[in-house]
Hints:
Chain A has helices spanning 14-25, 32-42, 46-50, 78-95, 106-109, 124-134, 141-159, 184-200, and strands at 3-8, 29-30, 59-60, 74-75, 99-102, 116-121, 175-178.
Amino acid sequence: MRIITIGREFGSGGREIGKRLADALGVPCYDKEIIHEVAILHGLSPEYVDNISMKDIQFVYPSTIGRTFGATAYYNNSAITALASQQEVIKKLASQGDCVFVGRGADAVLEAFNPLNIFVYADKDAKLKRCMERATDGETEKEILKQMQRIDKSRAGVRNLLTDKAWGKKETYHLCVNTTGVEIKALVPGLVEYAKSWFEGQGE
Amino acid sequence: MRIITIGREFGSGGREIGKRLADALGVPCYDKEIIHEVAILHGLSPEYVDNISMKDIQFVYPSTIGRTFGATAYYNNSAITALASQQEVIKKLASQGDCVFVGRGADAVLEAFNPLNIFVYADKDAKLKRCMERATDGETEKEILKQMQRIDKSRAGVRNLLTDKAWGKKETYHLCVNTTGVEIKALVPGLVEYAKSWFEGQGE
């Protein structure tokens, strides 16, 4: 089984890399699809599941779901239930065959599948430029920078519920790709070959 | 001009990647060669130049070489002179054509050449295993771990004299390659293609 996961900073082009890489490999890319399936399972809106952040996680005593936080505190609410369900959906999809996951802490969820875990990042200015080009609601530079910070912080926070391996730290990943100043489309053939090499080089 | 620089953690296999990548691309790989040339220029031993660390850098007032440290302190001694000379040698070699540099802060020195800057790293256990396999003087695990720490600290420190871009931080590099649990030889075809892709993708 050859599973690739893509973690990414907001605005770095990680989602585009995931989609293009999956296309080039002829395998499915899972991103919003996971969210939709989870949302349907729980009667939640996709927007709700997509935007779960740490502020949605409430601590309750006692509970049977979640990791301990401090000595005896557990968390459990619909956000946690949705996250747990998302993990099951990710595992189910991974079991079906080779694929690419974008975000959703898939690298942590799928550790037993030994996936190739890639992190995509870029300089702040490059990310801002990318977001400004794609802004559809006339967002200002300041608004986008704020959104960037908020989303990355949320990704790191939600991830901490799943694993001790820190979001965005190079040690967590097998390959970290800086998209600053480079055309993302051009990187894909290189990433395809790198992925093949990496899977072939496993088991030393 | 297509220049590739390899920064690396001690024991991660960065030097092997550099050599193999250069071989696969049919270009020269510069590493010890730089040291030897610099050493000869200054009548120093290659071992001395190879092992310049922060403790060799003394602060003197006044001087004309070096960056300010604090308000008015400059540094200048034979270690700094050798480092400055090493920079000239690196630029001279880069001007001669496509090539790969391993270490020596080449990514910082060659910024104007727009090189592809790769950082090679691995988990501590993977690096230790690699070093133990290559240990020729019967070093103990403890000794190798100490050596690892000392050399990486020295690399980071000497680098700080050249640039504000931190050694080993993913933001400093275009690609970060984790060699943990993977056969280095197998990664090379992937890295060759990635390098080609990256150079083709420049100029977005």
